[in-house]
Amino acid sequence: MTRTSSGRDKFALKSLGVLHRNIKQAKCLMVGAGGIGCELLKNLVLTGFGEIHIVDLDTIDLSNLNRQFLFGRQHIKKPKALVAKETAAKFNPNVKLTAHHANIKDPNFNVEWFKSFTIVFNALDNLDARRHVNKMCLAADVPLIESGTTGFNGQVQVISKAVTECYDCTTKPVPKSFPVCTIRSTPSQPIHCIVWAKSYLFNELFGASEDEAPEFDHSEDTENAQEIKNLRQEAQELKRVREMLGQSEFAENVFEKVFNKDIARLSEMKDMWKTRKPPTPLSFKSLFSDAQDGLSSSASDQKVWTLEENFLVFCDSLDRLSQRILDLRNAGNDTLLSFDKDDEDTLDFVAASANLRSQIFGIDRQSKFDIKQMAGNIIPAIATTNAITAGLCVMQAFKVLKQQINDARMVFLSMSGDRGLTTEPLRTPNPSCQVCGVARLDFECDTSKTRLGEFIDVVLQDILEYGPSISILHDKLIYDEEYDDNLNGSFESLGITDGSFLTVMDESDDDQPHKVNLIVQVKSRPQNDAEQSFVKPARVEIPVKQAQPPSLDSLVLSGKDTGRNTSSHGNGDIEQSRKRKADDSLDSNQEPSKKVKAGEEIIIIDDGYIEID
Ligand SMILES: Nc1ncnc2c1ncn2[C@@H]1O[C@H](COP(=O)(O)OP(=O)(O)OP(=O)(O)O)[C@@H](O)[C@H]1O
Ligand SMILES: [Zn+2]
User: Can you give the residue ranges of the Ubiquitin/SUMO-activating enzyme ubiquitin-like domain (predicted)?
Assistant: First the structure.
């Protein structure tokens, strides 16, 4: 049933009171139209937010449809932002919707554009984009509602410049990596074999080089120099095998190389197997004869395949992928493939290769279903979690729009613990945060004429009273006391253009007071004055860094289990506040001198910090 707009307004007015007017006048930005985004857009539209811009870079995939209910089968491969807008527009014709099929990091979404919004909602799935929006909202001074879900857990955080902590006030967990030797020589768990198949073997045969795999941690490399050298040699040999792609004996050559020859060499390294069972090579010919019966009809994704079934899937998927490479090559296209958990050919190859390797090392084989989860780092997305979280986002947005940010809470949704929903007060900004614990300066200049040297002399040293010990970053270091190569370069020649950010860091001696980092936002404007290529900014006091303990308010915890262990999968990577506490004490070099343990739950540190354990 379609409700008339006046009827809708009447109900909204009754339930929302004066807030209704603020909502109608609000212009919101929603970044991400995936799991949370679809639910959130429906809420925003039905609540009657006046204007909504939707940004999403992706197109709709079949696997999105179980929970991203604004999309149907007919929309597969169409841009999420546009389809979300079209579907949601039908829920409330009074809302003005604009869709952008684009990356939120595109330069045209600059600070000025962000400033045009009343409030921003993040419904993203990765750290990088979340960090970017956080930064832009701080620069534009627009409140941000950050949200994330992981399986049954969800979180909502309200971020407001200088009032609350920002997304980067706490460090975020980095994706898991494994020592390269564990992956290459001494796997002991299924995940080690899956990472090997996905990030090494697959890439060496069909994709880009293994050096780019983020899962490989080379930090232990020095201890294993000889082994690393051998592995490099093996990789070179594999490159030669790759050149045989398309020939009838390709599968046998690959198999014999990685599952026989390399393993035989490895098992010869007696020192390595003093405390472990040595690996057992497999033979292509004997498996080939054992596997004559073909795949059993019951070989489902959920079942753990036999060795012979893995062998057959390995050969078959290798053929399918080789054929794809040949087809691409014949069409004159790029011939690199990349692993995608939703691409059956790549998943079959990774699943079978991982299981063959597990067999060699005496590790339990896994079903294709389980391998898909592990290889794609998938924690199943739950529609209900997204729906509840999206609802919480709107509830928190109400408080922001009512100018009652002090009533806003950090909200956690969790299946563990006594209560599904727990909240805690918003924290004050972390004084040592590199993103929000900063001073800001708008710098208007002609980027083609302004030289880095004059910016330092006139703006930083004369006007802002910096000493000689500073460093300046623009993505990477462009100046410090020992690196003055760029002094004569124009901003433009250094890649600094309209909308660029520079970070100025005070590098004075440790016993001196340090200014907080200064974020300079560059605004490129042609300057007609021949004398001056920039507008001299007014003198402002750059605050000095100080370690400031969090306010008492922020130490009051509302629930026993706040569910703050949600993390990973990108969605739920809002960091636990306990990590923040740990970092705070590390940052300010405060060694807890006395710890009083209250059960296993709370550690009280005598300088006033509380840590949840
Ligand atoms: N930099 C970005 N700019 C714009 N949109 C982005 C950016 N990064 C991620 N997104 C979008 O954020 C949304 C996040 O949604 P969600 O977590 O449900 O992920 P998904 O890709 O739809 O699903 P899954 O990863 O579970 O297959 C996606 O639609 C994704 O395209
Ligand atoms: Zn911060």
Answer: 444-524
Which ligand 1 atom is nearest residue 32's CA?
Answer: 12
Say how far apart CA 29 and CA 119 lie, in whole Å: 7
Q: Starting from the CA of residue 70, give the closest ligand.
A: 1
Cα 437 to averaged position of ligand 2 atoms, centre (Å): 6
Residues at the binding site for Zn(2+) are 166, 169, 433, 436
Q: Measured in angstroms, how far is the CA atom of residue 125 from the centroid of ligand 1?
A: 5
Helices in 17-121 by DSSP H: which ranges? 19-25, 35-47, 80-89, 111-115
Active centre residues (catalytic): 181
| Ligand nearest, relative to CA of residue 101 | 1
Nearest to 435 by CA among 55, 174, 173, 171: 171
- Residue pLDDT, tens place only, 390-409: 999 999 999 999 999 999 99
Instruction: Write out the two tokens for 153.
Output: 């857990």
Binding residues: 32-37, 56, 64-67, 80, 125-130, 166, 169, 433, 436
- Amino acid identity, position 280: T
User: Is residue 187 lining ligand 1, measured as CB closer than 6 Å?
Assistant: no
* Domain at 439-524: CATH architecture: Roll (3.10)
Q: Give the model's confidence band at 113: pLDDT under 50 very low, under 70 low, under 90 confident, else very high.
A: very high
Selected residue with higher pLDDT from 296 and 126: 126
Q: Which CATH class is domain 178-375?
A: mainly alpha
3-state helix, strand, coil in the chain (%, to 5): 40, 15, 45
Strand, coil or helix: what is 292? coil
If you ran DSSP here, which 8-state letter would residue 400 be given? H
**pLDDT tens track for 462-509:** 999 999 999 999 988 999 999 999 999 999 999 999 988 999 999 988
Position 226 confidence tier, pLDDT thresholds 50, 70, 90: low
pLDDT score of 3 more than 60 = no
Angle at 567 between CA 199 and CA 550, to 5 degrees: 135
Residue ID of nearest Cα to ligand 1 atom 31: 58
Q: Which ligand is nearest to the CA of 57?
A: 1
3-state secondary structure of 164: coil
Distance 303 CA to ligand 1 centre (A): 30
- 405 in Cβ contact with 141 (< 8 Å): no
Q: In what order do the strands lie in the sheet with 144-150?
A: 96-101, 51-56, 27-31, 119-122, 144-150, 153-159, 409-413, 421-425
Q: Round to whole Å and give the CA distance between 401 and 393.
A: 12
Domain ranges of the chain: 5-172+381-425, 178-375, 439-524
For residues 432 and 438, give the distance between their C-alpha atoms in angstroms, rounded to a whole number.
9
Closest CA to 147 of 37, 66, 273: 37
- Residue 32 Cβ contacting ligand 1 at under 6 Å: yes
Which CATH topology does 5-172+381-425 take? Rossmann fold (3.40.50)
The amino acid present at 521, given as its one-letter code, is Q
Pocket lining: 571 vs ligand 1, CB cutoff 6 Å: yes
* Residue 129 CB less than 6 A away from ligand 1: yes
Instruction: Decide if 5-172+381-425 and 178-375 have a common fold.
Output: no
